[in-house]
Amino acid sequence: MSNTIYLGYYFKVQPLQPAVEILIAQLGYAGFESFVETEEGVTAYIQKEDYYETILDDIQILKSVEFEITFTSEEIEQTNWNKEWEKNFNPIVVDDKCSVRAPFHEKPDTQFDIIIEPKMSFGTGHHETTHMMIQHILKTDFKNKSVLDMGCGTGVLAILTEMKGAQPIDAIDFDNWCYLNSLENVERNNAKHINVLEGDAQLLVGKHYDVVIANINRNILLQDLAIYNETLNPEGTLFLSGFYKEDIHIIEAECNRYRLKHVETLERNNWVALKFQK
Q1: 245 close to 272: Cβ distance less than 8 angstroms
Q2: With 103 labelled, which of 1, 84, 86, 250 sits at a CA distance of 20 to 30 A?
Q3: Is the same domain home to 238 and 139?
Q4: Domain that holds residue 42
């Protein structure tokens, strides 16, 4: 990974919401893999080798008359990434119980304190979906429960479940950056029961969990839901996020096929995180 070069796109957006969230979602579908929200909009990153000249042509919100969106771009060497995110990464506190911060931030007075260096990985807690998943975890009993964190990003959700007593825990991501970053963050938080794996849902064959957490995107969730259901123990809990309020009926209909009962919805800026019970 030492020679990886990223392109950074710096978007200025007016008004900010919901345009920034829509922009992030559409860029994610196009292949951009990391995002940092800024006071003026959002910075998006994509590997140079994944970029092509017409990549922004299908980003519909750039053509919208409701928002004014401008951007500049530049090449970013991988070694410069720490400076990029340190400029923008502020600590967050969720429900006065869980903090997510970098090592250089002052320790807050919270019950759960997670220290991460996100680098190019997704899942700092700033994004609505991660924030809501943290809220779900804070309200759930994880003592001695086996957990899958699918699409683990920085590993922040897996780390929080261990802090709440879960074990054993599998944290899986297909992206090499996320895999390596999760390994670092698991070690940084002295987590002893998290097994970090690089790959996709094919790694779940023969595995079983009391709780499955999947914060990815709608299409991947729909594609892999049958596998999540197969791996979920009887009376197990499934948390899903990475999609909009408008997608609830599609996700719920697919879950109904497997008799997964929708029991709770969290909503934040039109993003949702759903809880299902088997």
Answers
A1: yes
A2: 1
A3: yes
A4: 5-85
